[in-house]
User: What shape does this take?
Amino acid sequence: MEKKKRLDENKKLFLGAAAILAFVLLVTIGGMVFFKQQVKKAAQALEETEYREYDRYYAMIVEDADSPFWQEVYAGACAQAEENNVCVELLNDTLEEEYSREELTHIAIESQMDGIIVQADESEELTACIDEAVEKGIPVITVLGDNTSGHRQSFVGVGSYNLGREYGRQVIEIYQNREPASGKVYVLMDTKAEDSSQNILYSGIQETLENLDISLEMYAVNNESRFSVEESIRDLFMNVEEQPDIIICLDELNTSCVYQAVVDYNRVGEVGIIGYYDSEDILRAIERKVIHSTITVNTAQMGSYCVEALCEFDEVGNVSEYFTVDIQLVNADNVAAYLVQEEADEK
Amino acid sequence: MKNNLFGKISIQTKLAVVFVFTSLIILVVNLFMYVNINNMVNRMDRVYQGNLRLNELNRALRDVQDNMTEYLNVKNSDTLEAYYRSVQEYTAYVDRLSDVVSSDAFGRMERNIKKLSENYLELTNQTVEAKRGRNVEKYNSRYESATKMYEHISTYIYSLNNEQFNANSANYEALSISLRSLELVSNLILVAVIISNILLILILTKTITSPLKTLADTADEVAEGNFEVALLPVQSQDEIGIVTRAFNTMVVNIREYIERIKKSMELEREMKERELLMETHLKDAQLKYLQAQINPHFLFNTLNAGAQLAMMEGADRTYEYIQNMADFFRYNVKKNNETVTLAEEIELVDNYIYILNVRFSGEIHFEKKVDKRYTYLPVPSMLLQPIVENSVNYGIRNIDWEGKITLSVYAIEDTLCISIKDNGIGMSQEKIDKIMTSRLKEADLSQDSNGIGLDNVIGRLRLFLKTEDNLEILSGGKNQGTEVRIYLPIPDENI
Assistant: This one.
């Protein structure tokens, strides 16, 4: 009886020992497997992905690469480039230092890029750069802003006259809903811009408002230095004798600044703002009815036209001089859809 | 059965298995750790190799620019040589850069740096050429362009370096996470191994110590004198099993040994008892003799003087008689202890018979048939004389016919027979039995007995020979005479 009990005890001890050994083995193997998986996860981050090789390499040079507008244009360009198996590089983004468009164009030339997309103006330096590139066999496409004096291959932009007419129509809309039916309309003009597009645009507005009792005036926004835009817009509210009833903004930054100034000077409702571009802030402002409406270009289309133009030139040898990008009006009626779109994009 | 298997493994093997097992696990874990740490260190090296390479590239670029500037400044062959050397070095670096346009942003930057560098080198060469050609205007403008380009390349390299560093930081993060998990895993395993090691050792020591404890308890019990403990069960075939079995054997052997000692002690005690008894009998005989012969020395000396007187007077028979008496008493004085030879005993009987025959005027016819070869055998002293005295006193004293006593010594195979036979009144069987069982009362003995009774003789003979049946009394019945036979074993060489 005793012996049997002892044997049982022995058996228990033996089973216990076996269980412990099994446990240790299990922990060891489990730990190793766990670690291997962990390493695999880390290795996935380290693993070199298969890179796609492109046929051609284009540079895109813009003034303010960080703005949502240009980012969207760039995204549109990239999408088109992917389709044609070429690569577009937003050159501003790749370099840590901030270079002027001229310098960036030089870099693109020296880097022997296959094509340059540049947001141009009529400055001589840029003209020289464009000419240098074309001389070296690099096709140049100007976007949004044109350089007509240089030998650029094509221009992708908004039809300025059409844009002007649209702005005019918006002014009429505000004007008609307002008592007394008079107003001072300022068009914020870029002092740097020496091209004709602003003038064409202005004449477009002028023609639309021809028979109305509206005084249309240009207001030069100084953008010579970094923060001068904001200062000169505030000046408009502080120092100008005849205060604006309607302000027409021709770029995104101006729109944001005017919006902020109107809020700051407590002029919401008194000043009608017609903006440009559909950034989230602007859309929200429309929703709150601070900004009456905004005109936006089809950024994706703009980018895609740029690449298309370059590809066409590379393949065929020539390309049409103008690409006109569609414009869209965003006002209180359709802003909700844009906001939804914006949120979706963010996600 | 597993259990039996476990029992059969020796402690040494068990310990070895446990330690080897845990050591192996620790070894494996360590190896695993080292291999993986090595792996990771290699990866980290690779991660930062790109940065190092770019730094080298930047340095080489700076060398080119500095050497070119230096040459343009001083225009000697040393600086020119230095310039060409740096150009060579830089070219070597640039050649290694990829020039593929792909979705890899770093690759594209590399390609741009390469293209820029190629242009730059061409420009610097042209600048140097212009300097050598002393075309001041040209080399100045080229130098300016080259410097600008140099700045562009520098920026590019710097940017790429920065971007790579950022990406590497992410990689580093991933690596450090896996390193941390490695640390965690290995620590976990080590802790598990340590805990299980402790448990295993506890179990192992329990299997070793618990039978030892039982063994010790049982040993204590044995030490306290309880040899009747139950034998311990042998549970395993290991060292403990061996010890347990040895212990069991020891307990059994101790039991047997104690039994043997008990027996031999009893035997010894018996022997001692017999010796004591023998001594007592002898002393008893001597005491009785001394009671009878108050002063044998005095008597013996007196008798000697009487014998000499008889000789001087010429009375030969008187002399002989006194001489015999003196011899008889001397025997008692001299042989007051233990063993004598048979011959001496027979001589004493001769003396006794002579004395009696003088006393009773030759009434006793004494006859001797002695086999002289055996007379050297040892016998207890005062063995034959009391028997003869008995024969005279109780056998032939009061008979009408001529008394006759025969002493025969002869061998029957390995036994010597000493026979004392008389033709007296004989003895009833009842009386014989009484004598043989020592139940004869003192009162039965006649007054003029010499004192040493037959039972004393029988007792001493038994003690001497250590056997029971060594004396026999034969009698045909009334008036048929009595024969007393003593049987002595003859030592081997005389058969």
